[in-house]
Amino acid sequence: MRMTSTTYSDIRKKRNLEIPLIQYEHLKLNALHDELMQEVIVVALQRIGKPPCPFTFFTMGSGGRFEQVIWSDQDHGIIFREHNDRNKAYFLLLGKEISKGLFKAGYPYCDGGVMADNPLWCKSFMDWEKQLSHWVMDSSWENIRHLLIFMDARSLYGEHHFVTLLKERAIDDIHKEHLLSRILENTLHLKKGIGILGQFLTETHGTHTGTLNMKEKVLFPYVNAVRLLSIKDRIYVSPTLSRLKEIPEQTLPIGERKLYEENFAKILGFRLLYGNHDNYDTGHFLAIDKLSTFQKKELKEIMKNGIHLYETVRRLVLKDGHHGAK
Fold first, then answer.
1. Owning domain of residue 103
2. How many domains is the chain built from?
3. Are residues 139 and 166 in the same domain?
């Protein structure tokens, strides 16, 4: 990890300079996002001062899953070790500084407030344990949504094992409370991307008319299904491709798993190669007319396989009468 930038403006300049060189290469692009965010954290720590105890800063959403495109908003949090008012005040201030720094470096604020300057996402390890347990026990629609957001957490800086430990305990609680079927209801609602005549169901109004919403209609069926399988089989990594590699053969036969891995890698490539990357809002929409006849056929097949994956996961969850092994 190169640490050369000394201000948020320097990081923004580096971002503008380096992203065009790798904007079509998924792994290199996401590695650069990691590096830029880590540099922001270092600058923020220099401004705020030495932390009073060990902590970790983690990213969630597409960043947590290592699936960002050129533009990405902020989704992140902080876990710190010792629980006291002084530490809480320090890390909320650090979260605010990092959020500001990321914004200045080119990462828009999260509209939903899923950021480390929000007390909901900045807590001591002990308070995180209590909060995750509450989300499981209450299991309201909103709490399950928060729980699933956290399941995509990936540590970027500090004590990486804090995130893994909390995921382990949360997944244990999910199994004890037989919550997999409830999570299924919450996340696996598919928005159809192909009509009964085999046509793409593109946007019909607004600025994205005529384009396909890749995020909702192509990406999410895979992301949500594989996340649920990772909870079912106690897999703690966050990237969808990494999760797929760890899913055991008794859950998904190796042939199917490989097919879904290939399909998902192609989805990531389609987004970068053919998406509109003018800004954050346009980045998830694909202009179908940019694709060749073969590419359109290939994308439809990938989307159909996503629906098949969803149905497979639904059957697996509903087949287990206890909704998850203890």
1. 8-177
2. 2
3. yes
Q: Please identify, among 128, 153, 177, the residue that sits at the C-terminal boundary of a domain.
A: 177
For 24, left (φ over 0), alpha (ψ -120 to 50), or beta?
alpha
Instruction: Mark whether 131 and 43 lie in a shared domain.
Output: yes
CB 10 within 8 A of CB 2: no
60, with CB counted inside 10 A (0-12, 13-18, 19+), is: buried
Output the domain CATH number for residue 80. Answer: 3.30.460.10
Name the 3-class secondary structure at 72: coil
0.85 exceeded by pTM: yes
What's the distance, Cα to Cα, between the start and end of the chain in Å?
Answer: 39
User: What are the DSSP calls for 99-149, one per residue?
Assistant: HHHHHHTT-PPPTT--STTSGGGEEEHHHHHHHHHHHHHH--HHHHHHHHH
Whether residues 69 and 116 fall in one domain: yes
Per-residue pLDDT tens digits for 275-297 = 878 777 777 888 898 899 999 99
The per-residue pLDDT for range 260-271, each reduced to its tens digit, is 999 999 999 988
User: How much is the pLDDT for 284?
Assistant: 84
Which residue has 């966050």 as its token pair? 238
Asked if residue 115 lies in contact with residue 95, where contact means CB atoms within 8 angstroms, the answer is yes
Residue 321 has pLDDT above 70, yes or no: no
Nearest CA-CA partner of 200 in 106, 126, 302, 324:
302
What lies within 8 Å, CB to CB, of 211 at 6+ separation is 202, 203, 276, 285, 286, 287, 288
Distance of alpha carbon 60 from alpha carbon 112, whole angstroms: 13
Specify the higher pLDDT residue, 210 or 80.
80
User: Where does a domain end: 177, 210, 241?
Assistant: 177
Name the 3-class secondary structure at 280: coil
Q: Which token pair is 254?
A: 């190796």
Asked whether residue 3 is domain-assigned, the answer is no
- Give the C-alpha separation, 277 to 286, whole Å: 10
